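Hello again, I could really use a second opinion on something today. I've been staring at a protein lately and its backbone has me curious. You're getting the sequence in one-letter code plus the fold written as tokens. I'd be grateful if you could look everything over and explain what you see. No rush at all, and the record is pasted right below:
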Amino acid sequence: MAGPILGEDGVARCPWAGGPGVMRDYHDTEWGTHVSGEAAYLERLTLEAFQSGLSWSTILNKREALREVFHHFDADRIAAFDEADEARLMADARIVRNRAKISAAVVNARATVALRDAEGLEALVLSFAPASPPAPRTTEEMETTSPESKALSKELKRRGFAFVGPTTMFALMEALGIFDPHLVGCFRRATA
């Protein structure tokens, strides 16, 4: 059973962030921290979709390029992408070149714009916050889906979103700080 590990700096962290580097930086400064605004939510949604089947460090290392090519996740600008834009992105070696994921980013931007006439992306995602957030002590106790992530996935699909499966939505909820994802004993637990 893997609980928080003590880094060489004497700080207890979730095991995946034990060593110095981009993963630790993300863990220590961003993961599980509340954000606000449509662009911040669309960015996290897009990054989680791009991460599917890949390591999170790959996405973090490509994040600045993804921000650039997706206009800092301005939904209106991404929603206006056409086939030529998608072809341009498929040729950009700085990002994950997966046609389905690139297409999903455009579809999701269009769905995000459509949500403005209702509650908006941020309010919709927040409405699925768990009433009883998890408090895992070990990695074995950590879930990869929840009733809330399954319901969010279903609702986003109903609203026209793509690449929003229950596991991806659970990771999104963790990343956005919808609930505290850190292990009990991690120095970040209850600080975000």
Q: What stands out?
A: Strands lie at 5-6, 12-13. The longest strand covers residues 5-6.
